Amino acid sequence: MTDPGIPPRTFARSRAMQDRLHDLVPGGAHTYARGSDQFPEFMAPVLVRGQGCRVWDVDGNSYVEYGMGLRSVTLGHGYQPVVDAVTRTIAHGVNFSRPTELELAAAEDFLGLVPAADMVKFAKNGSDTTTAAVRLARAVTGRTKVAVCRQPFFSTDDWFIGTTAMNGGIPAAAVETTVRFDYNDLTSVAAALAGDDVACVILEAATALAEPQPGFLEGLRAQCDSHGTLLVFDEMITGFRWSAGGAQGVYGVAPDLSCWGKAMANGFPLSALAGKREYMELGGLRTEEDRVFLLSTTHGAETSALAAFRAVVHAYRTQNPIGLMEAAGRQLSTEITAAVRDAGLDYYVEVLGRPSCLLFATRGPDGQPSQAYRTLFLQELLRRGVLGQSFVTSAAHAAADVDQTVAAVTEALVVYRRAIERKTVEGLLEGRPVAPAIRRTAEPRYIARA
Ligand SMILES: Cc1ncc(COP(=O)(O)O)c(C=O)c1O
What we know:
Cofactor: pyridoxal 5'-phosphate
Largest sheet: 7 strands, mixed
GO molecular function: pyridoxal phosphate binding; transaminase activity
Keywords: Pyridoxal phosphate
Family: Belongs to the class-III pyridoxal-phosphate-dependent aminotransferase family.
Number of domains: 2
CATH architecture of the largest domain: 3-Layer(aba) Sandwich
Strand order of the largest sheet: 4-10-9-8-7-5-6
Helix content: 25-40%
Structural class: alpha/beta
Bound molecules: pyridoxal-5'-phosphate
Number of strands: 13
């Protein structure tokens, strides 16, 4: 099975640690998307450090990484100005009994980037902010229904997870008030809003795979206005990746509320609920109305993430990180597409999406998406020093890193082609295929212990 041309990589320490992680941490990881079931069975590296776009594992293997901390790192691992700002700041304390001047400066920085928002409240996880947006919209409108776009993810909280396959422990009542609509489909929006009983519409204004068709976001805005429904943009992925001002900065449609997280602080934990003053102030002290519990957390304004955020904003103001990640993405997309064509694998392997947010599709001999063929592709990339469930880049992915990736992909495609010709991955794939992170059953093979 081992290709004589590739120096062997051992994953022995990773495997031992992964088993131990499964003993101590349900799922063996603190985030499902980072789970060992998302990687080839015997090649789930446990990492020790990163620098720029590279990471190292406990066996000493190094990789060019894609995905970058679930898209939270746009400037690269260990980005020095962020590290310096954080270390300078935390030396003087991290958490206090009153707001700091850093909170004011960070709020000014944020609102300078997002013109549609008058006020902002910081938190730690994106899910806290989408949940707060839903709660605020319900309080503003006195309605309970929420219209949620059929897109992959919005929150770890019941109102959203209850709509997924992994809804154990969530009362049906938590999602009885959730209605769905389709992206780029104003007819389905109209059907969802027809009863004038929906508190808010929540969606990602764009995703890696789908850009708004002309008129869609404008039509959505108009329908929300005519039905008295708040428009909420989830900017978790688009923020600091589409533009520093998110998708709303690109498409020019202003939401009532928006929710931010991921890349705000180059991997440090920071999220934000932002929006119009008339709504946000309901969570404040300058209102005659009943107050809304917007967000209030012990760690919401600790100084490390806010210092990181300010350094990120400075980098976006003075450099062009989005241009760099898009350039890397464009090079990857062009060169991998050419390699796929040369390998005669057109359509079986496809690079898709916006240059700063590339995904890959892997299809089997029948032309259908295949987890087994995806796993084979991941396995062959890992063996050649590329780690990633996507080709999502950062500003630290330089041309040489992309060259190395394209060389690895070109070799991986030789194995992929063999599997397509044989119409099976058997004999080529070691272990079981990957599976969607959010699914109903674990399946015994994923919980087998060494
Ligand atoms: C679009 C979107 N919204 C919300 C979230 C939730 O963010 P967090 O994991 O920070 O709670 C995610 C997480 O992946 C996301 O992709």
